[in-house]
Specification:
With 496 residues, the protein is of the alpha/beta class. It is built from 19 helices and 17 strands.
Length: 496
């Protein structure tokens, strides 16, 4: 007989917590969600009453009595994909609302979920603050960084889970289980058999050794990634560049690789990737001329970047607050783009640097002093020509599902390893368009929901919902670990 216990589901989404807790005998006493699509989906799949929705968490003063509190606190303010503003972002303040309700309601245990960015060194003070607030609320808690792939999900989804107990004796007993030995793979989701591939053959391009991506790798075999990355900012033997797809000369490819190899060097700026001027290119290869850079701009492989500005006459009365903030960054009457992009004040005030700099140019306040060249496609997650990654069927895992969807695809075509691995892929998969996005049913399975889970028809709508959810099997594991402490044993005894 399962324990019967009561739970409250804050930031409920489509019910990833609900699904896992109800699997173990949990009964929902109320949920909080403000997204209309999420509420419709939640109620349709779990037969919950819309009137049970507690609404906006900022307006909740008291929660119904319950045993376990769950919350998937909005993560954008701590996410690498966001601006990483933490408590400077209004969404970061939702942690205070969540802990207030924890202190007010005093359940026996809780599970809070967030992105792994919250444990990054730059956010350490914020995490410590959250843990201190939880302690002040009367709880013993610890945090755990968990990858969904380790617990029955074919997805690379690393998340932070904070689990706490009202009584220390149960906190001391809490242990999360070890990762599964037999993990679910992408092939299981796609329903295909995968064959063993040939051993790796080294590849050389233009006399320069191609390094295999390691930290970026999600799944690899024999040194090769089990997916192809469409990107101009990284290199590897499973990387497809724009100059591999567009018709380019060997000389143009050499210039592209020159920028690729040098743009991340600190000597060219403070950013992770820095544009290079004609003078920079000439210092690397004295034979490079302006026309060659212009030709790559015309091919839309390179783009011009106005990088250094000279400050001219200033009429302070004609400036907006945003323009004044930009000008405050000037040193010796010059403004450098990397200093603007690393300025925290501009981030917090959400000032558009390119737009504001252009307005200052039009007013005659700024004058371009140096033009540099960068790759046109500099957003890694966007990829090239609408494709970011194409995953082969033998890949262990699929990347993290996100609310905005991604340009990630799958192919059912298996490409044997050879010295023409990249060329074979381009010919058999990319050029023949032998790839597709994952289906709604596959997305559900990748997140740990049943394949027949009901979601809206629109891809944008269901992707937003499934991408914002927690992975059900991970919550299953955490709930089981909580129950193993016997924190809810008294409930069972009382019901007898």
């Amino acid at each position: 007989m399962q324990n019967q216990f009561r739970f409250i589901d804050l930031f409920a989404g489509i019910g990833g917590f609900y699904k896992a807790l109800s699997n173990h005998g949990g009964i929902c006493e109320g949920y909080s969600e403000i997204n209309k699509d999420a509420v419709e989906t939640y109620c349709e799949n779990y037969s919950e009453d819309k009137n049970a929705n507690l609404g906006d968490i900022k307006k909740i003063k008291e929660l119904p009595e319950h045993d376990i509190l769950t919350a998937g606190v909005p993560c954008q303010s701590w996410s690498i994909a966001g601006k990483n503003l933490g408590f400077d972002d209004d969404r970061g303040q939702l942690w205070n609302d969540t802990i207030y309700l924890l202190k007010q309601s005093q359940p026996k245990a809780f599970i809070f979920e967030n992105v792994k960015g919250l444990v990054d060194p730059r956010n350490r003070d914020a995490l410590n603050y959250i843990l201190e607030r939880i302690e002040q609320a009367g709880y013993y808690a610890s945090y755990h960084v968990v990858n969904s792939f380790d617990y029955g999900v074919a997805q690379n989804r690393i998340r932070l889970y904070i689990v706490g107990f009202k009584e220390k004796k149960y906190f001391d007993k809490f242990r999360i289980s070890k990762p599964l030995e037999n993990r679910i793979k992408l092939a299981d989701i796609l329903g295909v058999d995968v064959t063993e591939k040939k051993k790796k053959v080294n590849i050389d391009l233009f006399g320069d050794e191609i390094k295999v991506a390691k930290s970026m790798s999600l799944s690899s075999t024999n040194g090769y990634n089990d997916y192809f990355l469409f990107n101009d900012l990284r290199n590897g033997d499973t990387t497809i560049h724009s100059w591999d797809i567009l018709e380019t000369t060997d000389r143009q490819k050499e210039i592209c690789y020159l920028l690729l190899k040098n743009r991340r060097k600190n000597s060219y700026g403070k950013l992770d990737g820095n544009p290079l001027s004609l003078e920079h290119f000439k210092s690397l290869d004295s034979s490079i001329v302006q026309n060659e850079l212009d030709a790559l701009v015309e091919l839309k492989i390179f783009k011009e970047v106005n990088y250094v500005f000279k400050v001219t006459d200033i009429d302070k009365n004609s400036l907006t607050d945003e323009e004044s903030e930009i000008l405050n960054c000037a040193v010796d009457n010059k403004i450098v783009m990397d200093k603007l992009k690393t300025n925290r004040t501009l981030k917090i005030k959400k000032i558009s640097i390119p737009k504001t700099a252009l307005l200052l140019q039009q007013k005659g306040v700024l004058e371009v002093d140096e033009v540099r060249y960068d790759f046109k496609n500099t957003k890694i997650s966007t990829g090239l020509f609408g494709v970011n990654r194409i995953f082969l069927p033998n890949s262990d895992i699929f990347p993290t599902l996100v609310a905005s969807d991604t340009n990630d695809y799958v192919t059912l075509e298996d490409i044997p390893y050879s010295d023409n691995y990249r060329e074979d892929f381009l010919e058999e998969v990319y050029n023949k368009k032998n790839y597709r996005k994952i289906t709604k049913q596959e997305a559900c399975l990748i997140q740990g929901f049943p394949s027949d889970f009901k979601l809206p028809d629109s891809r944008a709508r269901w992707m937003k919902l499934i991408g914002n959810s927690v992975s059900v099997p991970v919550i299953d594991m955490l709930v089981e670990a909580i129950l193993d402490t016997n924190v809810l044993k008294k409930i069972k005894d009382k019901s007898k």
